[in-house]
Every structure is written in structure tokens, then in C-alpha cells.
Design goal:
Layout lengths: L1 H21 L3 H120 L1 E3 L7 E7 L4 E7 L5 H11 L5
Antiparallel strand pairs: 1-2, 2-3
Helix pairs in contact: 1-2
Subcellular location: Nucleus; Chromosome, Centromere, Kinetochore
Family: Belongs to the SPC24 family.
GO molecular function: microtubule binding
């Protein structure tokens, strides 16, 4: 397009020179040539300005494209981080649910253990009462009868030591050969009736 305009200008210039050579239009031709020269200068300035604007536009486009690429990369990186965080959150929620289930199971087990401990303590208190009662009874029997029983002898035998007023006397009875009444009477006969 520029070349066409330049060719047209040259043709106009040639025509003007012909007119000049033909006669009275010298001043007119001179003015036309001055105008034409000014138009060429403006055209060159416009071309230089346009070229500079195109260069600036290309540089700006390149910067914007680089910023856009950097923004897209940052967006992708951020999306990956968000996905990783979502995955971590999902795992944390699963862990929390598992811990809650474990916690409730442990609570139930703890409650069961507490109940068992309460039962054992009650049993121990009952056993302590029985043991205390049995100890009291054994001490009472000893005070009355003054007999130390041999608890390790075999079942049909009754063994022990009677600590009488004068001397200690061993006891050895076979309950399989003697009647209960005889054993009872014999043992009561050892008890001192003088209180």
C-alpha cells in the first residue's frame, strides 16, 4: 500500500514537472512540491511511529503472555496444593472417625472395667467380712476350747493340740471310726468349765 502511494506521488510529481515546463505554473509547482515533501516527511514520521507502536505492542503482548503463563502455572500449583490439602483433610476426617470409634470402644471397655472393679471390691469387702468373721470365730473357739487345730491333716482325721490348765495334750481322732456325737462330747470334755 505504501509503495502504491509512493508511485502515485511520483506520477503526480512528473505531471507537475510537465506543467511547470509547459508554462506559467512555476509557483504553483513549487508550492505543490513543498507540500509533497511535507507529506513525504509526515508519511515517514507516521511509518516510524507505527513501527515503534508495533514493536511496543509486541513487547507488551509478550510480557502479558509471560504473566499469563506464570499465572496459569501458579494457578495449577495452587490447585495441586488445594487437592493435596483436601486429601489430607479427608484422611484426617477418616482418622478422626476411627479415633472416635476407638474412643467409644475404649470408654465402653473402661466402664466395663469400672463395673468389674466395683464388683470385685464388693466381693473383697464381702470376703473380708467373711474372713474377718471366720477369724473372729476361730479366735473365739480358741479362747473357749484352747485347741490349736492342724488344718493340714487328711479329712477323716481330726488333729490338734489342746492347751489345758496343766499341760498341752495332743488330739488325734479318726472321725470315720467314731460317731459325731462321741467326737463332740470328747472335744467338749476338754473345755474347762471353770470360767
Amino acid at each position: 500500500m505504501m509503495n502504491e502511494q509512493m508511485q502515485e506521488m511520483e506520477e503526480v510529481s512528473k505531471e507537475l514537472l510537465k506543467l511547470l515546463a509547459a508554462g506559467g505554473a512555476g509557483n504553483l509547482l513549487k508550492r505543490s512540491l513543498d507540500k509533497q515533501e511535507k507529506m513525504f516527511d509526515k508519511l515517514l514520521d507516521t511509518q516510524l511511529t507505527a513501527a515503534q507502536l508495533v514493536k511496543d505492542l509486541l513487547a507488551t503482548e509478550e510480557k502479558v503472555a509471560q504473566k499469563l503463563l506464570a499465572g496459569e502455572e501458579e494457578l495449577q500449583s495452587s490447585l495441586q496444593k488445594v487437592q493435596a490439602m483436601e486429601e489430607e483433610l479427608r484422611r484426617a476426617r477418616e482418622d478422626e472417625a476411627s479415633l472416635r470409634a476407638d474412643s467409644s470402644a475404649l470408654r465402653r471397655e473402661l466402664e466395663e472395667l469400672r463395673a468389674e472393679l466395683g464388683r470385685l471390691q464388693d466381693d473383697m469387702e464381702d470376703d473380708a467380712g467373711v474372713v474377718h468373721s471366720a477369724t473372729y470365730m476361730a479366735q473365739l473357739y480358741y479362747k473357749i476350747s484352747r485347741i490349736d487345730w492342724d488344718y493340714e491333716c487328711e479329712h477323716p482325721h481330726i488333729k490338734g493340740i489342746h492347751h489345758g490348765p496343766a499341760i498341752a495334750q495332743p488330739i488325734s481322732l479318726d472321725s470315720s471310726q467314731l460317731s459325731r456325737c462321741f467326737v463332740s462330747d470328747y472335744l467338749w470334755s476338754l473345755v474347762d468349765t471353770a470360767w
